[in-house]
Amino acid sequence: MSELKTIVPPKGDYIQFENTDEYTEKVKEWGLPASKSEYWYKDRKQQSIVTIKGYEVYGQDHSGNTIIIEFEDGSLGCIHPAFLKEMQAASFGKIYLSDAGEAPQAPASIQSEKKEQEPAAAKKTVTKKETKKPKKESPKKVVLPEDKVHFTAQVKQFALSWNHFNEENDEVVVLENVTIQQEEKIEVGLAWCSHSKTLKKWELSPGEQLEFDGKIVKKKLPQGKDAEEEFLKDEAVPYKINNPSKIQKS
Predict the structure, then answer these.
(1) Strand partners for 213
(2) For residues 82 and 105, is the Cβ–Cβ distance under 8 A?
(3) What was the pLDDT predicted at 222?
(4) pLDDT the model gives residue 68
(5) Burial grade of 184 (CB within 10 A; 0-12, 13-18, 19 or more)
(6) What pLDDT sits at residue 76?
(7) What DSSP element (H or E) covers 41?
(8) What local confidence, expressed as pLDDT, does residue 250 receive?
(9) By CB distance 3.0 to 4.6 Å, which of 66, 186, 191, 207 could disulfide with 178?
(10) Ordered alpha helix ranges (H), 34-77
């Protein structure tokens, strides 16, 4: 069976889940049902049961994910979260490669996103003669560590964030005065994280000081849809903290 798979294996080490909460949080972020432990992988000749073993990150801000799946024969493969999500649908159409060797089409969700972006790009071609405005000073670029680090922060508010994978709002915690505590401290400012089961146990309140370990990536907080004003942010929150652990509050 394994010789039919066209999926590529991971290049090397990948991120494995530290606990059930982390698994649930990531699977929900990808728009997959977190209650399941097995998923369908489908291609032009077969369909197989697979499990999610972990994920890789890519992009300069490490905000992109590739899921690592394990087949029944023990082999591993990489797949985009949106692609695996579409494979779970009973109506998922098999991918057909032509004899000419054409590449498979991207999932419908990715194609529709691209179509939405094209009109916006076209509008940018229309130029107007405008009065030159003074250039704003660019904010200092923050170089983010790739490994897990220690943070101090303050709870600013709770908010709702639109998850385009499962098409619903997720609960998040917005943090302010976020600082990476290392030999040379890094002042991050605003950041956000999912209001996971782990965090809910701490019954956080705005104004509380926190210390914790976690990984930080550049990922802007998406605004919630049809949410009350108190659960929206009126300023950009550019960074996300993944899987906060060893939490202390005061």
Answers:
(1) 150, 245
(2) no
(3) 86
(4) 94
(5) exposed
(6) 92
(7) strand 39-42
(8) 80
(9) 191
(10) none
Helices (H), the chain: 20-29, 81-87, 108-123, 197-200
Q: What are φ and ψ of residue 20, in 5° steps? A: -65, -40
* 185 contact partners, CB below 8 Å, separation of at least 6: 179
Give the pair of three-digit tokens for residue 237.
């929150």
Q: Residue 149 has what pLDDT?
A: 92
In 10 A of CB 159, how many CB atoms? 22
Tokens of 228: 């009350």
Say whether 42 sits in a helix, a strand or coil.
strand
| C-alpha–C-alpha distance, residues 231 and 175, integer Å | 14
Q: How far apart are the first and last CA of the chain?
A: 55
Q: What is the token pair recorded at 225?
A: 């849809």
Residue 117, helix vs strand vs coil: helix
Mean pLDDT per 10-residue interval, the chain, length 250 residues: 62 85 88 88 84 88 86 90 88 51 45 47 49 57 84 93 83 93 91 89 92 91 82 85 89
pLDDT of residue 122: 44
Q: Which residues pair with 242 in a beta bridge?
A: 215
Residue type, 93: G
Instruction: Retrieve residue 110's tokens.
Output: 């990715």
Distance (Å, whole) CA 111 – CA 11: 27
